[in-house]
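Aim 2 progress update. The chain analyzed this quarter is reproduced below.
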Amino acid sequence: MTVSAQTDRFVLDRLPPAGQWPMLRYELPELQLPPQLNLVEQLLDQAIVKGYGDRPLFRSNALTLSYAQARERVDRIAQVLVQDFGLLAGNRVLLRGGNSIGLALAWLAVVKAGLIAVASMPLLRAKELGDIIDKSQPVIALCDAKLLEELQLAQAQNPALKTIVLLDQLDAPVAMPGLTARKSGRFEACPTSADDVALMAFTSGTTGKPKAVVHTHRDVLAACEAWPRHVLRASPDDIVMGSPPLAFTFGLGGLLIFPMWAGASVYFPDIVYTPQAMAQLVFDVGATICYTAPTFYRQMAPFVKELTGQRGRPALRLCVSAGEALPDATRQLWKEATGIEMLDGLGATEMFHIFISSAPSEVRRGAIGKVVPGYSAKVVDAQGLELPRGSVGLLAVIGPTGCKYLDDARQTQYVKSGWNHPGDAFLQDEDGYFFYQARTDDMIITAGYNVGAPEVEDAMLRHPAVSECAVIGKPDEARGMIIKAFCVLRPGFDGDAAMVRELQDFVKASIAPFKYPREIEFRDQLPRTETGKLQRFKLRTPPASA
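Predicted structure tokens:
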């Protein structure tokens, strides 16, 4: 029997009813976790027991912290939260900041103290922050000083948030002033149940209003025993870097949780990543594992190729792409520039991280990969019945993690008969490889043909003039829908009628001619979330009555 340590039951009491929960499977031996555990104790305290105390954990231009030094700072912050602010297990803590050592330490301290971490994307404005505050009811916010203004505006409209503390007041990267300086640096992890909630993550909003997803201590540690163990296979010698925000579960796993599970280290920059800057830092830092979105890899490729010519091949050995569909054109461009076969993955905030993927040595061109050990996946019809291999249908997934929305009627849309339905259309071949077709709301039915937007985007991205591309279905009286493309062109190319015809002919020659875009609109940029995901819903033509 598990015993919850979370005396504040705000989140526990707003979980979905038992009948709406996903089935959770722990079939592999490594997924047999104890009923009482604290994930930060397992990742940080146990790393020192394993002999990693003197190994680097966090790196930046200004500072390197070992596992032992990081634990002391985490414990000091936890002491401040519990002793000075009187926070109780189960209280929510809003975290606001860019990727940094300070934000990582704060996140770990919050969870170690039995509190619930609610990280927010740095670019959110007051209204969006207000929605998060209203949903999660945080007791306190820990905020980077550079991002304070929007949070204060949100606080003025949301009296539930009474206290804001600047991250530097807790534990500055170089010195420890103020609140933490007088603490002992020894804090016993809260004796949380494995099923106590550790974090609340908000979906990225590619299809509209974000949803709040909760994950337990068990969920996060179970995720460590799946994709990182069986596919990524990081080592203590790895140096990890990347662009996904820690507020995004892709970034939280890739740039904090999974490196700690492997005993590796993470580099946090003191600049905002651009493709050129990130390419430069890959060489300067000696990074061996990189996480970013497909668009960023595409933009980085020429810079990495140029630097390789000047400095030789980088130490980089694993490049993980997730967050949106990886066009094969981008995969091949990156391979040409680096010699590295990209590691693709399909994950979801609702599942915490990646559940379909393949190691670089097992890549099949055009496929995302196979189901990750610990999970099961199938392609089903609208009634949930599994379709024959080679058929296009809806993806359904089950495993050691699953969707638990906080107080949201959309739970029953995602979890059906215990299976998670991420909203993606897939095809599975006879060998078990999954081929992404589109999100179900990105399937275009034109003149009776089903066309996946990503397939057309991939074809267009192969043209040397196209830097970025988004494809949608536009309502049409004669065809039901026509295919419309939005393109960002590379410098030196003109978005004129001649370019439209050239791109249309190029697509006709690359894939079935009925899939070519009958309309092409040129843009300076495409709408994306802060994590780099394309927001096609912002491009769709509104109804005539709107």
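Residues 67-84 form the longest helix (18 residues). The chain has a mean pLDDT of 90. These observations will guide the mutagenesis experiments scheduled for the next reporting period.
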